[in-house]
C-alpha cells in the first residue's frame, strides 16, 4: 500500500520570513506538529514542534529560515508505507513531506500516520 492512502493532504506552510511568534501560534492553534517552509512554492525546510521546545528562549523576531531543518528527506505518493516507515526510523525524523514530480507539496506523512496504519492493519488481522 502507498502513502497516498494515509498521508495528510491539508498541510500548513509558511514562508521563510515568518517569525517564530507566528509559527508558534500556528502550531498552538491548529494542533499541528510540523510546518513546511516554502520559497517560490518549493519546499526548503521543515519546522517541528520539537524545534520550538525552548521557544521562550528563542527571540520571537527570529524567522523560519533561521530555525528550520534544511536536510530534507522527502517521498512521493507512490512510496510504499513500509519504505516510509524505514525512512522515519533510519533518519530519526518524525515526518516525511510528500512531493510531486514537479516539486510541489502534496502532503505529509508523520510517524502517527504510520502508527495508525499498522494499528488498523493489526486489528484487521486479529478479527479475521
Total number of beta strands: 5
Structural class comes to alpha+beta
Which class in CATH terms? Alpha Beta
Question: Strand arrangement, largest sheet?
Answer: 1-2-3
Which range best describes the helical content: under 10%, 10-25%, 25-40%, 40-55%, 55-70% or over 70%? 25-40%
Radius of gyration: 16 Å
List the domain count as a whole number. 1
* Range of strand content: 15-25%
CATH topology: CBS-domain
- The count of helical stretches stands at 4
CATH level 4 superfamily: CBS-domain
Main beta sheet, described? 3 strands, mixed
Walkthrough of the structure:
- This protein is of the alpha+beta class.
- It has a single domain (3-127), classed as CBS-domain.
- The protein is 34% helix and 21% strand.
- It is built from four helices and five strands, in the order βαββααββα.
- It has helices spanning 20-30, 64-67, 81-91, 111-127, and strands at 13-15, 34-39, 42-48, 95-99, 105-110.
- The strands form two sheets. The chain has a three-stranded mixed sheet. A two-stranded antiparallel sheet has the order 4-5.
- Strand 2 (34-39) and strand 3 form a beta hairpin.
- The longest helix has 17 residues, at 111-127.
List keywords for this structure.
CBS-domain; 128 residues; 21% strand; alpha+beta; three-stranded mixed β-sheet; two-stranded antiparallel ribbon; single chain
Q: What is the strand and helix layout of this fold?
A:
Elements: E1 13-15, H1 20-30, E2 34-39, E3 42-48, H2 64-67, H3 81-91, E4 95-99, E5 105-110, H4 111-127
Parallel strand pairs: 1-2
Antiparallel strand pairs: 2-3, 4-5
